[in-house]
Design goal:
six-stranded mixed sheet; four-stranded parallel sheet; alpha/beta; globular; about 40% helix; about 325 residues; binds pyridoxal-5'-phosphate
């Protein structure tokens, strides 16, 4: 396998811990967690790994300004703003929505980290991103475009190497379960699992996409990422395990299952999940465990992808006590 240029600002390897007090209330499974919420950069998360590769590419191309887009409470945007600050880039974020009266959580951090923010409607998001890029190029600001979620082959490659890191940790895991959305994390994991001979299963809990949409996206990205790493491997949608039964009220809507999962992890293990991604994925994992989806005695590793800063968003205030 070829490697790709990479910077080193994440705290790696992230630890793997067991969760005995949650395991004790689950029917005969052993639950573990891999702490990618602790990747170290401005409160961490899975995007930090992707940004090590994306910023190396940006540097190699002589860029000075990083431009990306996301939701108002995007973890990806917050980590991009932090990585830009750390590596000396300017940063422009295209966020979906209207500027709130008071910035909270990730948005507050975007501002603190010095990012310039452009607001756009959902329909105008991609056009606004392209316009910001074109305008920056026009004024010779040397922009580098990072796609939504950092999910191109460069970003997804980070999770190939994350799987290599995981395999070297020798944790017993029959299943890896995590929150999947723009698909870069899952594409990298699926490819890494194949390249490094992981014997278990990699299951993405969809945060917001229908099953077939996410399977197709991840399979395509995994195939393209393999090519970018000099490997000739093909992934079909059927090779990608996605469960889309837990998308609930839609992106960012914290319902009963998410609330209960966040409270369980906090109160049994002192572990903070988030309302958008990991709370939803953990709710799915818990439901599957209670339904007997995992075979008795299985080791299930919850790959924590971060996001806890969103706990402090205005939107969720007063809902978690
Ligand atoms: C972005 C994100 C995800 C999803 O990762 P993708 O690579 O976009 O599928 C999961 N959890 C958190 C906390 C995230 O910020």
């Amino acid at each position: 396998m070829q490697t790709l240029p990479r910077l080193n600002f994440a705290h790696l390897p992230t630890p793997i811990e067991s969760l005995p007090r949650i395991s004790a209330v689950l029917p005969n499974i052993k639950l573990l967690v891999k702490r990618d919420d602790q990747t170290g950069l401005a409160l961490g998360g899975n995007k930090t790994r992707k940004l090590e590769f994306l910023l190396a590419d940006a540097q190699a191309k002589g860029a000075r300004l990083l431009i990306t887009a996301g939701a108002l409470q995007s973890n990806h945007c917050r980590q991009t703003a932090a990585a830009a600050a750390r590596m000396g880039f300017d940063c422009t974020l295209v966020l979906v929505g209207e500027p709130p009266a008071a910035a909270s959580a990730n948005l507050l951090l975007d501002q603190l980290l010095g990012a310039k923010i452009i607001w756009a409607s959902q329909e105008r998001r991609d056009a606004a991103l392209q316009e910001a890029f074109d305008a920056a190029r026009e004024r010779d600001a040397r922009p580098y475009l990072i796609p939504y979620g950092g999910s191109n082959t460069t970003g997804a490659a980070a999770y190939v190497f994350a799987m290599q890191e995981f395999m070297a940790q020798n944790a017993p895991a029959d299943w890896i379960v995590f929150a999947s959305s723009s698909g870069g994390t899952q594409a990298g994991m699926a490819l890494g699992a194949r390249l490094f001979g992981f014997k278990g299963q990699v299951l993405g809990i969809s945060v917001d996409e229908p099953q077939t949409v996410l399977q197709e996206r991840v399979a395509g990205l995994a195939t393209a990422t393999a090519a970018a790493l000099g490997e000739n491997m093909t992934f079909k949608p059927g090779d990608i395990l996605v469960n889309a039964a837990y998308t609930g009220g839609g992106y960012g809507v914290m319902g009963q299952p998410e609330t209960e999962a966040i409270q369980l992890f906090a109160r049994k293990e002192g572990l903070l999940l988030d309302p958008v991604y990991t709370g939803r994925a953990a709710a799915g994992l818990l439901d599957l465990a209670h339904k007997g989806f995992f075979k008795p005695g299985a080791s299930v590793l919850f790959w924590h992808t971060g996001g806890a800063p969103a706990l402090f968003a205005e939107r969720y205030q007063g809902k978690l006590g």
